[in-house]
Amino acid sequence: MPLTTASHDSLPYIDPPPPENGPYSLSAATALINSLLPPSHTQTLHPSLPPLPPTNLTPLAQAEQDRIAAKEPLTSIDLSRYELDSSNPSSPPSTSTPDLQQKNLQEAYTSSTYLHSRAQHLALLDKYGKNAWLVGNSQLEDLLRRTEKELAETREEVERVNGERKRVQEGAKGEMEGLERGWREGVGKVVEVEIAVADLEGRRMRVLREGGGGGR
């Protein structure tokens, strides 16, 4: 159920457009509305809106949100662990220590494992990548066709609603003009009656004053 009831008092197909200048212009109405709004109305939510639900982000997702909010660049995956340190070549066996040999062996094993895995991935991509790419393109084309169909149906629905709205408003145009004309005539007659009453009251007061003066 909506929090507020939408009410549109304008009839765009039969109402005359507002004047461009003057106190009844659209710019004057907008300025009057803005003068009644608080300065923070563009940053604060309406009081009738419910509060936002609490977020349950993981620490990793929260860190990513903080990075985006701070407009920091995205850091890519560090590949240095898969590369041998060329700045410190392995020492000759006669001068190297067991710890250094173990470290160099671990780095070489890590690099070899990475290169072997990459070679397997490239072979799989060469064998199945084309078909997967074609299947993915086909799925995207199907999604695009469905989206375009929904868009066309939505546009047709909007045009149908607007056409029905225009037809109803134009059908009621004569009645609206007749009611407005009758209202104006009724208001004019009320004003005429009030003027006549005021005139009679003035005559009555003059008669009373004249009668009272003659009696003395």
Overview of this protein structure:
With 216 residues, this protein is mainly alpha-helical. Helices cover 65% and strands 0% of the residues. The longest helix has 118 residues, at 98-215. The chain is elongated, with a radius of gyration of 41 Å. The chain starts with 25 loop residues before the first helix and ends with a helix. Residues 1-7 have low confidence and may be disordered.
Question: How are the secondary structure elements laid out?
Answer:
Blueprint: H1 26-36, H2 59-69, H3 98-215
Fraction of residues in β-strands: under 5%
Q: Tell me the number of helical segments per DSSP (H or I, 4 or more residues long).
A: 3
Low-confidence stretches: 1-7
Distance between the termini: 78 Å
The sequence of SSEs as H and E is: HHH
Q: Give the beta-strand count.
A: 0
Mean pLDDT: 83
Secondary structure: helix percent: 55-70%
Note the overall shape: elongated
- Biggest sheet details: none
Strand pairing plus helix content: what structural class? mainly alpha
Radius of gyration: 41 Å
Give a short overview.
The protein has 216 residues and is mainly alpha-helical. The chain is 65% helix and 0% strand.
